[in-house]
Protein backbone atom coordinates (compact mmCIF):
# COMPACT_ATOMS: atom_id res chain seq x y z
CA UNK A 1 0.00 0.00 0.00
CA UNK A 2 1.38 3.35 -0.95
CA UNK A 3 1.82 6.29 1.39
CA UNK A 4 -0.85 8.24 -0.52
CA UNK A 5 -3.40 5.39 -0.09
CA UNK A 6 -2.71 5.23 3.68
CA UNK A 7 -3.25 8.99 4.05
CA UNK A 8 -6.51 8.81 2.08
CA UNK A 9 -7.65 5.89 4.27
CA UNK A 10 -6.93 7.85 7.45
CA UNK A 11 -8.76 10.93 6.13
CA UNK A 12 -11.81 8.86 5.15
CA UNK A 13 -11.83 7.22 8.61
CA UNK A 14 -11.76 10.60 10.37
CA UNK A 15 -14.52 11.94 8.12
CA UNK A 16 -16.70 8.90 8.86
CA UNK A 17 -16.25 9.33 12.61
CA UNK A 18 -17.01 13.07 12.33
CA UNK A 19 -20.22 12.39 10.37
CA UNK A 20 -21.42 9.80 12.90
CA UNK A 21 -20.67 12.18 15.80
CA UNK A 22 -22.48 15.08 14.08
CA UNK A 23 -25.62 13.01 13.42
CA UNK A 24 -25.63 11.85 17.05
CA UNK A 25 -25.44 15.45 18.25
CA UNK A 26 -28.31 16.50 15.98
CA UNK A 27 -30.53 13.75 17.43
CA UNK A 28 -29.63 14.81 20.98
CA UNK A 29 -30.63 18.41 20.25
CA UNK A 30 -33.87 17.36 18.56
CA UNK A 31 -34.78 15.14 21.51
CA UNK A 32 -34.44 18.11 23.87
CA UNK A 33 -37.24 20.05 22.13
CA UNK A 34 -40.51 19.71 24.07
CA UNK A 35 -43.49 18.91 21.83
CA UNK A 36 -46.10 18.10 24.51
CA UNK A 37 -46.93 19.50 27.94
CA UNK A 38 -49.70 18.57 30.40
CA UNK A 39 -51.48 21.25 32.39
CA UNK A 40 -50.29 21.76 35.99
CA UNK A 41 -52.10 23.37 38.92
CA UNK A 42 -50.92 26.74 40.17
CA UNK A 43 -52.24 29.15 42.81
CA UNK A 44 -54.69 31.17 40.69
CA UNK A 45 -54.54 29.33 37.36
CA UNK A 46 -53.33 26.14 35.76
CA UNK A 47 -50.72 26.20 33.03
CA UNK A 48 -48.46 24.15 30.80
CA UNK A 49 -44.77 24.43 30.14
CA UNK A 50 -43.58 25.88 26.85
CA UNK A 51 -43.50 23.65 23.80
CA UNK A 52 -41.95 24.24 20.39
CA UNK A 53 -44.26 24.55 17.39
CA UNK A 54 -42.45 24.03 14.09
CA UNK A 55 -43.46 25.73 10.79
CA UNK A 56 -45.49 22.78 9.46
CA UNK A 57 -47.31 21.98 12.73
CA UNK A 58 -50.39 23.31 14.53
CA UNK A 59 -50.86 23.95 18.23
CA UNK A 60 -53.29 21.38 19.65
CA UNK A 61 -55.13 22.45 22.79
CA UNK A 62 -57.20 19.95 24.79
CA UNK A 63 -58.65 21.13 28.12
CA UNK A 64 -61.44 19.75 30.30
CA UNK A 65 -62.69 21.47 33.46
CA UNK A 66 -63.87 19.33 36.40
CA UNK A 67 -65.80 20.46 39.49
CA UNK A 68 -65.02 19.38 43.07
CA UNK A 69 -66.81 16.03 42.46
CA UNK A 70 -64.63 15.35 39.39
CA UNK A 71 -67.62 15.76 37.08
CA UNK A 72 -67.12 17.75 33.89
CA UNK A 73 -67.89 21.34 34.80
CA UNK A 74 -70.40 23.40 32.83
CA UNK A 75 -68.94 26.70 34.09
CA UNK A 76 -67.37 29.10 31.64
CA UNK A 77 -63.59 29.27 31.74
CA UNK A 78 -60.92 31.24 29.93
CA UNK A 79 -57.65 30.04 28.50
CA UNK A 80 -54.83 32.12 27.15
CA UNK A 81 -52.17 31.07 24.69
CA UNK A 82 -48.76 32.56 25.37
CA UNK A 83 -45.99 32.87 22.78
CA UNK A 84 -42.55 33.37 24.32
CA UNK A 85 -44.26 34.30 27.61
CA UNK A 86 -46.50 37.05 26.19
CA UNK A 87 -50.26 36.71 25.63
CA UNK A 88 -50.89 35.62 22.04
CA UNK A 89 -54.66 34.88 22.08
CA UNK A 90 -57.46 34.55 24.64
CA UNK A 91 -60.47 32.21 24.35
CA UNK A 92 -63.63 31.62 26.42
CA UNK A 93 -65.13 28.14 26.72
CA UNK A 94 -68.74 27.69 27.86
CA UNK A 95 -69.23 23.92 28.01
CA UNK A 96 -66.27 22.78 30.14
CA UNK A 97 -64.26 21.19 27.31
CA UNK A 98 -62.19 22.32 24.34
CA UNK A 99 -60.27 20.26 21.78
CA UNK A 100 -58.90 22.34 18.93
CA UNK A 101 -55.96 22.71 16.56
CA UNK A 102 -54.80 26.27 15.99
CA UNK A 103 -52.57 27.43 13.16
CA UNK A 104 -49.86 29.59 14.76
CA UNK A 105 -46.55 31.07 13.71
CA UNK A 106 -43.55 28.94 14.72
CA UNK A 107 -42.28 29.53 18.25
CA UNK A 108 -42.51 28.45 21.87
CA UNK A 109 -46.03 28.31 23.30
CA UNK A 110 -47.74 27.64 26.60
CA UNK A 111 -51.37 27.73 27.76
CA UNK A 112 -52.88 29.01 31.00
CA UNK A 113 -56.46 28.21 32.06
CA UNK A 114 -58.58 30.29 34.48
CA UNK A 115 -62.08 29.73 35.85
CA UNK A 116 -62.45 33.04 37.69
CA UNK A 117 -62.42 31.71 41.25
CA UNK A 118 -60.08 28.68 41.03
CA UNK A 119 -62.96 26.29 41.81
CA UNK A 120 -62.34 23.77 39.03
CA UNK A 121 -59.51 21.44 38.14
CA UNK A 122 -58.31 21.16 34.57
CA UNK A 123 -56.92 18.17 32.72
CA UNK A 124 -55.34 18.11 29.29
CA UNK A 125 -52.56 20.15 27.78
CA UNK A 126 -50.97 21.28 24.55
CA UNK A 127 -49.09 19.54 21.79
CA UNK A 128 -47.49 20.29 18.45
CA UNK A 129 -47.69 16.65 17.49
CA UNK A 130 -50.00 15.54 14.69
CA UNK A 131 -51.50 13.04 17.14
CA UNK A 132 -52.15 14.74 20.50
CA UNK A 133 -52.97 12.28 23.26
CA UNK A 134 -54.81 14.31 25.91
CA UNK A 135 -58.35 13.15 25.12
Write the layout of secondary structure elements.
Layout: H1 3-31, E1 36-38, E2 40-41, E3 46-47, E4 51-53, E5 59-66, E6 77-83, E7 86-93, E8 97-102, E9 107-114, E10 121-127
Antiparallel strand pairs: 1-10, 2-3, 3-9, 4-9, 5-8, 5-10, 6-7, 6-9
The percentage helix is: 10-25%
How many strand units?
10
Q: Structural class of the secondary elements?
A: alpha+beta
The first-level CATH class of the largest domain is given as: Mainly Beta
Q: Report the total helices.
A: 1
**Number of self-contained structural domains:** 2
CATH architectural label of the largest domain: Sandwich
Uncertain runs are 26-31
Distance between the termini: 65 Å
Write a brief caption for the model:
The protein is built from 1 helix and 10 strands, in the order αββββββββββ. The chain has 135 residues and is an alpha+beta fold. Strands 2, 3, 4, 6, 7 and 9 form a 6-stranded antiparallel beta sheet that branches.
Notes on the structure:
With 135 residues, the protein is an alpha+beta fold. It folds into two domains: 1-32; 36-127, Jelly Rolls (Sandwich). It has one helix and ten strands. The chain has one helix at residues 3-31, and strands spanning 36-38, 40-41, 46-47, 51-53, 59-66, 77-83, 86-93, 97-102, 107-114, 121-127. The strands form two sheets. Strands 2, 3, 4, 6, 7 and 9 form a six-stranded antiparallel sheet that branches. Strands 1-10-5-8 form a four-stranded antiparallel sheet, with no helix packed on it. A hairpin with a 2-residue loop joins β6 and β7 (86-93). The longest helix is centred in the first third of the chain and has 29 residues, at 3-31.
Amino acid sequence: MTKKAKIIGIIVSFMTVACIWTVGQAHAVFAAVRLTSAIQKGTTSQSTRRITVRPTKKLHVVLTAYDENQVTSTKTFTYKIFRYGKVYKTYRVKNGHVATAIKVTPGKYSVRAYDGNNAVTFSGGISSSNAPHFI
